[in-house]
Amino acid sequence: MRSDSESVMKEFKVSLSDEEEGLLDKIEALLKVDEKVMLILAPSALIANLESDYVPRQSGVFVLTDKRIFFIHKDKKEGHVIYNYSIDKLGTISYDKGLRFGRGSLSIPTPDRFFDFAVPNRRLDSYREVFDKVKQSYTWEHSSEYRNMNLSERKSRLASSIRKRSVQENDENRKDSPVVE
Q1: Is position 122 within any domain?
Q2: What integer is the mean pLDDT of 95-99?
Q3: CA nearest 85: which of 53, 121, 115, 42?
Q4: Is residue 155 part of a domain?
Q5: Is residue 10 a part of any domain in this protein?
Q6: For residues 138 and 69, is the Cβ–Cβ distance under 8 A?
Q7: How many CB atoms lie within 10 A of CB 128?
Q8: For the chain, what is the domain count?
Q9: What DSSP element (H or E) covers 140?
Q10: Across the strands, what pairs with 47?
Q11: Is residue 21 pLDDT above 70, yes or no?
Q12: Pairwise CA distance, residues 41 & 133, whole Å
């Protein structure tokens, strides 16, 4: 198992069965050397094919990297099915805290399918943060303006962005904290 996969699993307290670890190995074999694993889940998923009404619930392994998403599950006919989409091919991701059994949903539309993953409510906000971070950095890194910058311009722009984000977070923290006089 890759070290970034191990640290993500530890951070999000994800444990996989032996079968799920085998599925994760298949995804890791497809990852590029410079691709970083950001999130791993072992959810059940509804996978709606946009050309069919049949929506089977599948158990498998979901992986979010800094460049793509993957979902792999076993299939009786085909063995294993791996879905793989670039971050820029994803539609608006929605997060819904469910009212029953502490389960919410993470819904991800793609050009040809709609994935609805059952996930624990208590972790939904942290999943949202990771997705937002990945989408934001992916968009920035793949913009033509960024590609045309030299290294020192990129470093300067990144440092400026980090300073702005830090100021925004400090402002938000001040608003949220009680005023003590």
Answers
A1: yes
A2: 79
A3: 115
A4: no
A5: yes
A6: no
A7: 14
A8: 1
A9: helix 121-141
A10: 115
A11: yes
A12: 17
